[in-house]
Write a structure and sequence with these properties.
The protein has about 700 residues and is of the alpha+beta class. Helices cover about 20% and strands about 20% of the residues. A hairpin with a 2-residue loop joins strand 5 and strand 6. Helix 10 crosses helix 11, helix 10 runs antiparallel to helix 14 and helix 14 packs parallel to helix 16. It is elongated.
Length: about 700
């Protein structure tokens, strides 16, 4: 066992966290209001506290000290001394062991206990009372690490935004029920990087894997007591630590190895990150880290009522990114993942919170300014979830250049359009064109719109066409959680059915929606499992369901229907790659003319003439045609024509000019139908009910694009 000195030497405040330099470990932790911070050392065998040192120096609000001869593997935590004065926002309690905000690894789970609360849980004085029980036995311990890893020739794929196809996936849900060679541990990063998984992503044309939170998170106590858990992971405990539940051996190198394998295959990895709140909850929540170190600084407090926390997140607390040290922690965390794990980008949960200054949301806030000027982070893919429950919380279209944004307008409009709702043609046209009406300013490009039909939060694609109502009873909240407004339809029967007519219709609508997603300008995002008909049985809020409800059922992928849909999605991706007009790098407004009589984008009715004002507002109008044309740097001209018919009847449509020959690339109602050149005298085509048709045009009769299709 290590022999400890009587006291720590001063050390340095420069690097926060526990930093090993080969001769010892420097400890540094921020707290503006603490009066003393102690470092506690624990025995790795039985987790007993075996030494305690006062951090001897306090420099620029950083407490620091140096422990000579300490090495990676050392277990530690902090205790903070100061006023317990909730009325003024201070909740110091040295009886509570605290996690280092900059910890790189934790060992042991949170064993929920009343001792983790700074106050007596059942006291009539509530959080104004004080709890003197030691929380250390029920707390994870921080571990000093050495991050050295041999990346060899790993290169970030850096897929251009306009070529990007995202798949959103949950590490555990994606891999738990997938049988693979070499027997990687299901539900872990090992399985994520398995050859079969990479081959599946390749087949689908996925360039970028967006993972639900993989930073260390903690399930809420009330969920554990109900036999549930926080499955999604939007409840961060430690911003620098990979979630232990996704590590087969406990080593973070498993994540690095998975990323290396994905990068070698040309696939990017984007992390969904939660910097808007922590798992400590409201002022009545536990004291695990930030609350105990400096509640009044780490969290936003209600002005004039500092006992209570501002709850712009709907999760009980809001991180105070207006404070430079809290902002520094977030930026340091992002750079750590980018540099030490070669992460390709970040999707920011509840992103308006990150840009909300005391006076409101500001796209020039400190957070956005810091990200955009950062030489590392500004080169990564940056994606905002542009809404939160707070005041002025819907900010789609208002994020600064450099950020892409989840587009819920695309989701809702596409669902309503293919459900057959009236007067959707104008809105669906704007979404197909990359939502330039909302995003085309300050030099932003179509890729700024992350188009989606489904995501983890809500119905799967199969459930969008199978359920008119949510069915969340398994969550134990009387079925009232999750959104009641899903823009879905069951097409005749609520839930599963054996009726072949209903199943055929549901399949048509699913394929039409998927094609709309893949053939619209912007960045398409698929939800893992939609490619083979994954269902959650009508549950649109599976945040607490770590079970087959949420795990992908790969048996469905092996069914004839699943194989058909998987092949169809792969074909959509291939067509998108082959036709630049479907993935334009710049907005099309009809002002540029690739051919003298052909603007880059045009909208047509069933008679092949440009849409008139009355057609855009016609309640009974359904068929919509969009012709897009782009010219590549080498002079190659690509022209496509997409016709959408959400109605219940087939429609005969006249093809617009000029002279040339069309090739039918895709008919979503006949997904296995091969590409078919149409004769030069063919000027009409039937667009089936609930169907989407895509054609390519070759001036002068050249069948360019047929082979690519």
């Amino acid at each position: 066992m290590m022999r400890f000195p009587p006291a720590l030497s001063p050390g340095s405040p420069t690097r926060l966290g526990a930093c090993w330099d080969g001769l010892g470990v420097n400890f540094a932790v921020f707290s503006a209001n603490a009066q003393q911070i102690d470092l506690c050392i624990f025995d790795p065998r039985d987790r007993r506290e075996i030494a305690r040192f006062r951090l001897p120096e306090y420099t620029d609000e950083i407490w620091h000290g140096y422990l000579p001869d300490a090495e990676p593997g050392l277990l530690y935590g902090f205790r903070a001394f100061g006023p317990y004065d909730p009325a003024n926002g201070h909740r110091f309690n040295p009886h509570k062991l605290l996690i280092d905000p900059y910890a790189r690894r934790l060992t042991g789970p949170i064993s929920w206990s009343d001792t983790q609360f700074g106050y007596r849980l059942h006291s009539p004085r509530a959080d104004l009372s004080f709890d003197r029980r030691d929380s250390a036995p029920s707390m994870p311990k921080c571990v000093v690490v050495n991050d050295a890893y041999e990346w060899e020739d790993d290169i970030l794929p850096r897929v251009p935004w306009h070529d990007t196809v995202i798949m959103e996936a949950h590490v555990r849900g994606l891999t738990m029920q997938r049988e693979m060679e070499r027997n990687p541990q299901p539900g872990t990063f090992q399985a994520l990087g398995a050859p079969q998984m990479i081959a599946h992503l390749h087949r689908l044309g996925v360039t970028t894997l967006e993972l639900l939170p993989i930073q260390c998170f903690a399930p809420e106590r009330y969920l554990i007591e109900r036999g549930l858990t926080n499955y999604w992971g939007y409840n961060t405990l430690a911003f620098f630590v990979p979630h232990a539940g996704y590590l087969a051996s406990g080593s973070p190198h498993e994540l690095r190895a998975a990323i290396r394998r994905l990068h070698k295959a040309g696939i990017e990895v984007v992390m969904d990150v939660v910097y808007n709140h922590t798992c400590e909850g409201s002022e009545l929540g536990p004291t695990l880290c930030y609350r105990g170190l400096d509640n009044a600084t780490y969290y936003s407090l209600v002005p004039g009522d500092e006992r209570h926390l501002i709850n712009d997140t709907g999760c009980g607390n809001t991180l105070n990114l207006s404070h430079p040290r809290v902002l520094q922690m977030v930026l340091d965390s992002l750079r750590y993942w980018a540099n030490e794990f070669h992460i390709d980008g970040f999707r920011f949960d509840l992103a308006p919170v990150l840009g909300r200054e005391p006076y409101g949301f500001d796209q020039g806030s400190g957070f956005f300014d810091a990200i955009i000027q950062d030489p590392v982070l500004s080169t990564r893919k940056l994606i905002a979830e542009p809404w939160d429950p707070g005041p002025g919380g819907y900010q789609f279209g208002n994020f600064p250049p450099g950020f892409a944004e989840w587009n819920d307008r695309f989701r809702d409009t596409a669902r309503r359009f293919w459900r057959g709702d009236g007067q959707q043609q104008g809105d669906i046209a704007a979404r197909i064109a990359g939502s330039g009406d909302l995003l085309d300013r300050r030099g932003r490009r179509p890729w700024s719109s992350v188009n989606l039909i489904t995501a983890h939060d809500g119905f799967t694609l199969e459930d969008v066409v199978s359920y008119a109502e949510r069915h969340n009873e398994a969550n134990g909240e009387d079925g009232q959680d999750g959104s009641a407004d899903n823009n879905s339809a069951n097409w005749g029967v609520e839930g599963p059915t054996d009726d072949p007519a209903i199943l055929e219709l549901r399949g048509r609508v699913q394929r039409a929606m998927m094609a709309t997603l893949m053939f619209s300008h912007g960045t398409p995002m698929l939800l893992a499992g939609d490619e083979f008909g994954q269902t959650q049985n009508g549950n649109n809020n599976t945040y607490c369901q770590d079970n087959p409800t949420s795990w992908l059922d790969w048996r469905r992928a092996a069914t004839p229907e699943g194989q058909l849909m998987t092949g169809f999605v792969a074909r959509l991706a291939a067509l998108r790659r082959a036709h630049p007009s479907l993935r334009a790098a710049r907005y099309m407004h009809g002002r540029h003319r690739p051919l003298p009589d052909m603007p880059d984008i045009g909208w047509f009715g069933h008679d092949g003439t440009p849409m008139g004002v009355e057609q855009w507002t016609d309640e009974t109008f359904h068929l919509l045609g969009v012709r897009r044309a782009s010219t590549e740097a080498d002079g190659t001209l690509d022209i496509t024509y997409m016709l959408l018919n959400p109605g219940g009847n087939d429609v005969n449509a006249t093809l617009p000019g000029p002279e040339g020959q069309w090739t039918l690339l895709l008919d979503t109602t006949q997904p296995e139908r091969a590409a078919q050149p149409l004769g030069p005298d063919v000027h009409d085509i039937t667009v089936p009910a609930h169907g989407l048709v895509l054609l390519a045009f070759a001036p002068g009769g050249d069948n360019a694009g047929e082979d690519a299709a």
